[in-house]
Amino acid sequence: MTDVIARRGYHGPSNEEAIEAIHSELDALWADASFVPDMDRMTFTTAVIEAAGNIVQHALPVAEKPVEIGVDISVRPARLQARVSAYNAREPFANDMQASLPHDDAESGRGLALIEALVTTVTFERQDGTNTWILTRDSTPES
Length: 143
What we know:
Elements: E1 6-13, H1 16-32, H2 38-58, E2 68-76, E3 79-87, H3 111-118, E4 121-127, E5 130-138
Antiparallel strand pairs: 1-2, 2-3, 3-5, 4-5
Helix pairs in contact: 1-2, 2-3
């Protein structure tokens, strides 16, 4: 596998401050990986923030421990990847994993469909009370 050129991460309480911290990590990542095209930066950033926002808004704790969020983002020459995790979280309901769009008048439910439209692949893993969404976007460096 190709070496990682740049990497950033965040781990902490699942709250609104986490979203700001993840934004900051993404900004720092793009400073280290200036070869990534602007369109790839924008779409990937949107997908990562949407996934993190879904955890902050919807993840429920599995026990007394509060939900924590973790994001590990890496850049390779032709691929962007983020592992967005909800620690100490219940498993999402099956209908939460559906990527179909809701009715036009629905106020929520578009997150996963939006994420899937912005990245190349989305996969989901659950292990030991942790839900992880793995987002990848193929990227061709600007010449």
